[in-house]
Amino acid sequence: MHYSYILSTALCFASFALSHTLPARNSPALPPSQDPWYTAPDDLLSYPAGSIIRVRPDPLSTYAAIGTNLTSASYNILYRTTDGNDLPSFAVTTLFVPVSKSTSSKKSQGLVSYQIPYNSPTVDASPSWTLSTELNSTFSDIAALLEQGWYVSVTDFEGPNATFAVGVAEGHAVLDGLRAVTESSSSPACESSKAWKIGLWGYSGGSIASEFAAELRATYAPEIEIAGVAIGGLPTPVAAVLKAVNESPYAGLIVSGLWGYANAFPVVESYLLSRLTDEAKVSGNFTAGRNMTIIQIFATYPNVDVYSYFIGGEDDIFASPLLQHFWDTQGTMGVHGLPDMPMYVYKAIEDLLAPVQDTDTLVEKYCAEGQAAAARKEGGAQILYERNTIGGHVAEEINEDEAAVEFLSNAINGKLGAGWPGSGGCVVRNVTVGTDTAPDW
């Protein structure tokens, strides 16, 4: 990329720095719970959804760890969004500026919002803080996107309260992150005539945020045009995952998920605490998980019967009308609108964490709704759904990475074609992709 273009980009963000309280680069790096930068302004209500509150160079300089041959800078952008209660909140995204020239049109620039499955009920697990430590295994995905010449936005989509798996809030955070990034290109220092070609990518917990963003786009952020969405390992409905992983190596996902909903909805917190057994109250085994990253959670709760912490066992979680309301409205894909952009969906048939039949059902629903919409000449679903015969949930995160990037490349560069996939509509097929054959347990 020409130096003049890099300078233009730097000036673009510098201009926002002047009006969005940009701290000095040598400001100390602190976890979000201790960093005053991660706070809402007193006048948060005056900020429209998606507007930038403040910007700073990433104090961890994560771009350097990913590779200065790929990215020239990383910025933290704090912006206004809307939580699961439809109340004003904020979120952060870490934006990586590419070094190489974009493969897109000279009049457009590629941007991918990449959602990492950080799956934790503590704000100190947010990617803007842990990306260079616990989440550095995702560097290869970010690098693959940067190699295309795209900007990459890595969102802290769980927000300041770490509302893990609360799909509506996460979808809002993704869409508002896109608003914030594209707003940052509208100053005189930027190429304001340059259009953005936008893609979304997320696996597992990251697919919750990405998929809900796709569903909510038309009603929440209709001005944001999305060229394509790649989502894998979909954990829907959330209740199905909570049933599937108990007493497995990934039982901690139940602890993380329950606390995510408790963080979002105080009534859920009150209910869960009221149903704890005396032993669980004394030991603190359940409550301890609220302040853990997902790596700590997996280390603490392997093969645990999480429902033994509750007086009524599983019934306290799955027979509760209160919790069922939230599972239905916040944790189930397919109920907030029909995605109106091309989608690449991928799933391991032997996925034990998030059973494949639930993704099958979701895709069938989308395809049926899409056919009805097409008959009314209102557009329709464009979905390629690949069911992988190799590996389980964990293996699939790597096995179809290359296919996801290829799809995003074609979508962003306008190479999918009007009839994609096939003759249009939906294509569902079994594939054998990748080399990781490991089962989940």
TrEMBL record:
Residues 1-19 form the signal peptide. It holds the Pfam family LIP. GO terms for biological process: lipid catabolic process. GO terms for molecular function: triacylglycerol lipase activity. InterPro entries: AB_hydrolase_fold (IPR029058), Lipase_secreted (IPR005152). Keywords: Hydrolase, Signal. PANTHER family: LIP-DOMAIN-CONTAINING PROTEIN-RELATED, PTHR34853. Belongs to the AB hydrolase superfamily. Lipase family. This is Secretory lipase.
